[in-house]
Design goal:
403 residues, mainly alpha, 0% strand
Length: 403
Amino acid sequence: MDDSPASSTPNARRVDWLDGLRGAAALFVVFHHMWLASWPAFPRNVGPWWVGWLLYGHLAVAVFIVVSGFSLALAPMRHGGTLNGGAGRFLRRRAWRILPPYWVALVLSTIITGFILDPNTGTGVLARGFVVHGLLIQDAVGSFAPNGAFWSIAVEWQIYFLFPLILILGRRTSLRTAVISTVTLVILAHFIATLGSPMNKVDHLSPQFLALFALGVLAVNLGHGELADRLRRPLVAIGLATLAALAAVAIAEGSVWIVDRYFWVDLIFGAAVACLMAAMYSGGAPRARAVLASRVARHIGLFSFSIYLVHGPLVGLLHQEVLVPLHLAPLATFGLLLAVGLPTILVLCYGFHLMFEAPFLHRRDLGALRDIPFFGRLSLRPTVGVPAPVPAADVVGATEATT
């Protein structure tokens, strides 16, 4: 979108706490996969009750999608709901932002998973999975998954093509009408999917995330303007009450019941997150905003996409090649993954970010390739120290996901 300077004030051109929220979601996904490696009985919780909440790593995807809709709507909402340069420029910049590091991660994930973690995978199966994931159609076409988090990248990529349509409808009617229409269409699609084969494949596309993306866009609208101050307290109350109700239901019904109903759980959870984000954007929850906008939180958020892309195979390597031979108890395995694995993974993910993601934060053309090793002269300018801040609207939501 634009390259405006950072600011922590409400309704400013950059919303720093979005980076922290994105980073927290990425870390939750890492914790989820460490939990899953230690107690591999998903969707049943066979581990200690006090870490059972890590089973719901899927909900981090809902957070990413709402954040993505919110981030990408910030600039258009300042310009009457119009994308600067049109839909073509928007899609081109999105492609340069996410596809190069995604494709590099796909190559690394295929090598690690196909030849080390699961060496019995046939060459043909590997090739098919690589092509399907390379084309970002893995949510529609079944194939070998070299990385368990990649399914949501396809979902978000497809949502980008619908985002301009939401804005167009919003300009011709109202943004709230556009969002209500999107949510209604998504619910209708889900009901059609319940009719059985072949319509049930509609749910494979995770249509609920389109609704969550639209709710993220609406959160920007609700978080500024004349009604923002009046809506702040009700939105916080609704958001917190909804999250508390979901937690109570999860405790009462169990994880299997929740996972079987992820369509509705995603919608409800994502709507609660959107309410809280709208309230924070209007100036509410100052303590939460301060924590999420802290230097550490923002820095983790800066390379959260890289964390999302490559943490899965790294967790698998550490678990299978280092911890499994030790024959440890599951709790000890989980503890070592946290104590030793987490710092190691974050360092490696940050290195991946510097090499393959950071160049595309500053340039959205072939010129960025010159800053990548093996693609031309290596320029150290964008990779020395901490990369310069980039607009929250330009940091992908990456879903960035879960099992």
